[in-house]
């Protein structure tokens, strides 16, 4: 059973566009929601994270929007660049416990 | 802060052989996690340690898998009698005491079982 559902599977945008990646979860015990960026052959790198008591968080060009009642959250990348081309994973964690990942979104930013 | 390191980065082995991977976490991180990632999928949890104690093991971790963290610093993951289905990227992550939910990943060990 997939506890964190992520969409779309892949995404292509033009440079400067705003790709949006969506995730939904079922377990209401989750209390921390990070996003990871992964380049081919590398380990996932922590990008930004949010807790459910906050509706939005911005760090640089990356923004997380969180809807607790709908159990959904999303990542927006402002002014996307070709260097942002990577696989993005949403995840959820129950305090002090393991990460549960979404299936990933392959993003390609065309120059 | 040198980050999480893993060795080897790549391993090719024949079916039936044993392999061992090593993970060195970020200094003073008391929690250490192992995940497995297959192509096109997100990482899946295998097991984790708090200091030297192994606190949880996934059902994915069959009897052929064993992990240790003998002195609460580095960790090893051993796979005995490897099978072709074990081919995957094995990722290690660590997190600090004060922010245990914030996990930092190493570069991974890519295993190919022939």
What brief labels describe this structure?
heterodimer, A: 111 residues, mainly beta, six-stranded mixed beta sheet, five-stranded antiparallel beta sheet, 11 strands, 54% strand, globular, B: 114 residues, seven-stranded mixed beta sheet, four-stranded antiparallel beta sheet
Mean pLDDT of chain A: 94
Poorly predicted runs of 5 or more residues of chain B: none
Mean pLDDT of chain B: 94
Helix/strand order of chain A, N-terminal first: EEEEEEEEEEE
Model regions low in confidence, pLDDT < 50 over at least 5 residues of chain A: none
Number of strands of chain B: 11
Number of helices of chain B: 0
Relative strand content of chain A: over 45%
Number of strands of chain A: 11
Percent of sequence in beta strands of chain B: over 45%
Q: What kind of sheet is the major sheet of chain A?
A: 6 strands, mixed
Percent in helix of chain B: under 10%
Secondary-structure-derived class of chain B: mainly beta
The number of helical runs of chain A is: 0
Please describe the biggest sheet of chain B, giving its number of strands, its sense, and whether it closes into a barrel.
7 strands, mixed
Structural class, from helix and strand content of chain A?
mainly beta
